[in-house]
Specification:
Length: 149
């Protein structure tokens, strides 16, 4: 609860962080892997598969509970992303707030890191893998996610 309380404080700062991000107009992360045009269902709060590809879904709570964010391409900073589906955590910043993950891609692993831009400690989530409770040093600590070749 303490960590989630901190998460809510971070979420309260999201608007300011988002505005500053918009003002500096950062370039998008270079695409990795062979994902091309994102399907329409990316970012709809539902964890989808598209043929052999699929989304990486990040959940607010363990055991894929709570609100989720569905990613399709790498995101170097989850500070400006929020949980999208209805439920606990909805609307809060994803950064340092993820407890479980589901990689629905059948070919590609993802790398999760404890700081933005791939810094900090990183772990790999293999294809088709559910992690119902991230290891303690990653739980509520992930800040960037990279699709691997
Ligand atoms: Ca989706
Ligand atoms: Ca982001
Ligand atoms: Ca962190």
């Amino acid at each position: 609860m303490i960590i989630k309380h901190i998460g809510r404080v971070s979420g309260a700062l999201l608007a300011a962080a988002f505005m500053s991000t918009v003002l500096v107009a950062p370039a998008s992360a270079a695409p990795q892997g062979d994902h091309d045009d994102p399907p329409d269902r990316v970012g709809d709060g539902v964890c989808n598969v598209y043929g052999s590809h699929g989304e990486l879904c990040l959940y607010y709570f363990s055991n894929r509970n709570g609100s989720l964010l569905d990613l399709y391409d790498s995101d170097e900073d989850l500070e400006n992303d929020e949980f999208l589906s209805p439920g606990p955590g909805h609307g809060q910043s994803v950064t340092n707030n993820v407890e479980s993950v589901w990689n629905r891609d059948r070919r590609h692993s993802w790398r999760l890191c404890t700081e933005p831009d791939g810094d900090g400690d990183c772990m790999v989530v293999r294809p088709n893998r559910v992690i119902n409770r991230l290891p303690s040093n990653f739980r509520n600590n992930v800040e960037s996610a990279y699709l691997l070749d």
